[in-house]
Amino acid sequence: MNEMAKSFMDPQSHHICGDYKVKMVINALPPNGGSGTFSYSKNSYFQKRSSSVEESKIEEEIQKKLDVEKLASASNMIIRVVDLGCATGPNTFTSAHNVLEAIKHKYQSQCPNSEITPEFHVFFNDLPSNDFNTLFTSLPQDRNYFASGVPGSFYSRLFPQSSIHFAYSTYALHFLSKSPEVVQEMNNPAWNKGRIHYTSASKEVVDAYATQFAKDAGSFLDARAMELVPGGMLVMVMQGVPNGMPYSDIINGTLFDCMGSILMELSKEGLFDESQVDSFNFPYYAPSPEEMTKVLEKNGRFSIERMELTDPAPWLKSMDQVIPEWIVHVRAAMEAIFTTQFGNEVTHEMFQRLTKQMLDKCDLLETKYRDKIQFFVVLKKKE
């Protein structure tokens, strides 16, 4: 293998040469591991607050629609639960605890005189490069479940057929398996030159991202349809957008626009070649309810029990108070993808400038952060 090919294939290489300039498809990477300043374990509080908005709704759906007695009796009194895209922070343990408590309460209401209760096996799934060491060294000592790690992409099969009773994914499914390939092609109408996302891009770029999402979400649902038992439940909490609203109209759209403009500034300052921006498209998509419904109808193996957009931050009083901390949270979740393309120095400088730019746009952000952009979906595997 020649040196150019080695450089291109090495995920840590930031040197892009010749014909490879517009052929780099960016793959999703896990959030920052460890317990340092910019680690996800220390910077996932916003995600916790946002996902907690849906906590009572999940309990309600379990109480109303999950037949725990039937599921437990058919599986030797063992209930299997999986967190798809668990990352490394404490949020996954909080989610697991809340789900298990809701399932136990439902079983007790169905079988008030039972002398035995189900045992629980919780699977924590994320990409193989996820920091599972940090995850499992922080497992609660007083947990009332058996725990296992399952490395692998949730866009493919992870478990045996009809083996999972309850699956949930929180703040992970908006990360695509990869950026759309056509946005990397110089001669394609969808070439996303000078931008890193579909925010404010041409219709061709937006359509390419939408197509990639539909493909990934279809693969995700196909895999879960095989793994869940009939009557099993799947819950998804992720970024979303109202039907017909351009992504540039919501707060994260402003975030991606600023990231792209800062990277273009840095390239003009000579820190790297502009082609590295042209070949970089962040693999992140927020679907609308209409888009999600189409994917579910195509799959056909789930009933839609609940689907809605909610305000992810009803607790937030003012944007200017949280912008610096919010950007650190964004960094903890997204930094690895940027450093793989641009290196540590450029990525650090980008996030430093990003905080300032977002503070400068605070008045604009104040008009956007109340949008209902958190997507909550509850599905049941058809009998």
TrEMBL record:
A Pfam family of this chain: Methyltransf_7
Keyword Cytoplasm in annotation: no
Keyword set, alphabetical order: Magnesium, Metal-binding, Methyltransferase, Transferase
Single GO BP term: methylation
Keyword Hydrolase assigned: no
MF GO annotations: metal ion binding; methyltransferase activity
InterPro entries: MeTrfase_7, MeTrfase_capping, SAM-dependent_MTases_sf
PANTHER family: S-ADENOSYL-L-METHIONINE:CARBOXYL METHYLTRANSFERASE FAMILY PROTEIN
Protein name: Uncharacterized protein
Taxonomy of the source species: Eukaryota, Viridiplantae, Streptophyta, Embryophyta, Tracheophyta
